[in-house]
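Before the break, one more example. Copy the sequence into your notebook; we will annotate it together after we see the structure.
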Amino acid sequence: MTDVVTDVNVRPARSTDLSAVGELWSQLVKYHQELDPRLPSPQPNGPLYYARQLEDRLSDPLVRLLVAEVDGQVVGYVLGMVVDLMGDLFVQDACGFLADIFVVSEYRRVGVGRKLVDALVDWFRDEKVSYYEWHVAAQNPHGQAFWNAMQGDSVLVRMRADIREK
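Here is what the structure looks like once it is written out:
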């Protein structure tokens, strides 16, 4: 594998991609579970359910699902949407939200994730969105390094406290 993959094709997902995306989602959840067991694990039928939910969103003009393809194989995906976060409470513009991104391990650190994000940002720009947000697991130093390289800044830190018995 080279330092940069040049033969990757990033394109809008089609319904024929959804099974593969569901399996990638399952790998994403497993990856996060291995990083931090406090993160939720998937239901046994989670990949199928995830794919079915995406089927309904393929035609939603405020949602974009992109896949990265190498030699006809889906090796990554990104899911983004335009959202209005509590517009009744806060004065703010609609923003982009990057809900999920995953690249299979063999294609990490060679530019596939960057190509997916760049393509999603192009779509956000077309939708007149001036910023986008995402979550990254606290126990995911590689993910944090990726987002720092993508010029990400921490705005809020999501924290958690377990409730213990008295």
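Strands lie at 9-12, 63-70, 73-83, 95-103, 132-134. The first strand starts at residue 9 and ends at 12. Try to locate both features in your own notes.
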